[in-house]
Amino acid sequence: MLKRFLSERPLRLPHLKPYVPRPSDPSIFWFNSERDDVISDVVSRICAAHETDRARLEMALNDAAFHEIRRLEKQRDEEARERLGYWRSMVRRIGKMDDSEQRRVLHTIVTNMARDIAGNFDPRVYRFARLAAPRLIGGVMEPRRLTEGLMAGSPASLDRVLRVQGDLDHLRNLQDRGSLVFVPTHSSNLDSIVLSQALETSGLPPVIYGAGKNLFTNPIISFFMHNLGAYRVDRRIRVSLYKHVLKLYSQVMIERGYHSLFFPGGTRSRSGMIERHVKLGLLGSAVGAFTTNRVRRVDRPVWFVPTTINYALVLEAETLIKDWLTEEGQARYIIEDDEFSRIDRWFAFFRKMVGMRGGCIIRFGEPIDPFGNAVDAEGQSLTPTGRSIDAGGYVEHRGKAVIDAARDAAYTRELGEVLAERFEKETVLMSTQVVAHVLFRDLVQQTPGMDLFTRMRLRGEIGVDAATLCRELGETRDRLFVLERQGRVRTSEVVKEDSPEELLERALSFWNGYHDSTAAMREGAQIVIGDPSLLLYYQNRCVPFAEDIASPEQLKAASEIARLGVHR
Asked: Does 541 have pLDDT greater than 80?
């Protein structure tokens, strides 16, 4: 009912006076004044790359028509009724068009794509959101606060839940010297929201970011994303031209100094594991932006900020792990029916989070240049020995910066490997993940010879003595602390400070009452595993460290768990 109410009444912010950007404002405040120029730049560069080669141009048009006809025939919606006839007509005419007509059609297609992708930024909405968002979320978590008014009181509830870690002074020092590109892990559709709040509370600039077009169907999220710099990504479109436009739009924005955010994992981690293999498309756009600026003699560096988003409770955990465990999860890119699409699940989630001390931790890692080098306080690139170097040298040939697509693709692959390593080191293991891992390891030990899917059917059949579990939990935590001292992973303050008994009770409390099923519950002196798949999801964050935090007696089970991450 609430969702229908909101969809029938579009969100509006009355009484907001026009805002004139000031020189001290973040660069994104000026975006709308050059939005048309950004689109024109993208269109002209895409068209120029195709127009000189008729064979390439004709192939691009045929590819666009073929894929759009297939997509629209499957959709059978309003868009299909409006556009399917155009594409069917065009595919019959492509071979008969002369060069000028093909170029006109290309220009029209690319322009429409760029306009559909391009974002928008309203400083008035930003000013409203930075004040209202934490109080609104805090009010959902503690409903009595809603009566205090969105613009009054203190967002204390959100402050208790959200923690920000990392060398923030370093990032604040770099934000006016070049373009920051935040590249976080991706667990939930809430990630963009909590990360935006983390940037705001840390004194870091707002960013542009890509958001799946399906998310714009949620009236609340759509309103803010549409007005706060999000550019739309329609993952249903398989057209090569569209991918080029999307990548170049990101590149042009970074070239022009707009701080950016994108998820290199591509989509949410359905398994709950830390991303080990990252997608290189948008990552390459930032490397390309650095190269292009150097060729044009524009002194605007680009730095990447490896970021981890760590939750004790994940909004869409049940849907994501079920999707991963099915064949559908291997191919389906968009999930349109998960918990994120249901307003009532939002309320249940945030109200559950109110009892969590540091239930979400955003950790900003040390920034690196496009070639994986650390950077100092002024943004100067450093070798592993600490010597200053000019990052521009990586894109020079005979002393002159040049564009070389193959070279930059190699740099992008290497950067992706560096980010995957940083994700592991900057991951903060939460109480639910550590408890789930110890419980799941016991499940594997008690079911030798069973495969993963057989174990998923053991609902309510496997129990562990609570005292034994707490002892194992304490020993596992001690081994995690050793890894943390080695700089291989991090643990939350709750994991550090609570006793094993408190950690167990905290995890059981978090799982009970939010998810439709329960990962584990107490039955007398036993902790019984209720939903092994949910337990699997939370423990998967520990997969890279499984063998290092196991005792000799647990090593066989730990090795089996570690193999879960080998082929993902």
From this structure: yes
